[in-house]
Amino acid sequence: MAYALKLLGISYTFVSRSSEKDQYSYSDLSEHIMQEYKLIINCTPLGTHPNTSNFPSIPLDFLSSQHLLYDLIYNPAETKLMQLALKKGATAINGEQMLKLQAEKAWSIWTLK
């Protein structure tokens, strides 16, 4: 994801369980930070089947209709994180289209000449 964002000229900051240089921890995410970053991409497996009630510790109270949450998970089609973001008015998209595009690209690499 970082590579794709870089290619698109979109600046980003990683969020993880612990703070490190140039990276936030989930506990660092203040209202100010959440308002600064309108695109949130969940690259964790939290929320995948069968543990569908799990999700990252993102402060969802700070989400609004200005946010786009992209959850790379595609099973289930609507994760708990996506459901909660939608309740806050955010747009939420799952990873199904990305999976399909990856499959199409792999098919063309290995079968087309």
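(the above was protein one; protein two follows)
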Amino acid sequence: MPIFYQIDTARQIVEARGEGVVLMQDIVDYLDAVVVQGALPYPKLIDARGTDFSLSDDDMMALGARVSAYAHFGPRGPIAMVVDTMAGQEFSRRFANLGGARRPIKIFRSIDDARTWLQTAPTL
């Protein structure tokens, strides 16, 4: 699976790292794990450096519907996405706009900057 993640309940944070080509099902599996483990309110650090997101427009629409549904589950934590390519930045922008996301999402080039921001970003 090209998305490796750790849900740290003690620190209440989710850290995920993409590797290689990431497909829609990989993202769905990750999101399902976050929901099942009660980690939606946790801040999320997503390291997408070196990741190639292979999603169609239809995939993005389906992902938007799924993300929108999560708003009904309660508070959702902020997301810091770290990218190193224009394609990664474009995917991150599209993801940030999914489902009318009304929570803090920010795109970074530095993982240290992303971690620092997550320490002060609010949960909505």
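Reviewer note on protein two: Helices lie at 24-36, 57-70, 86-96, 111-118.
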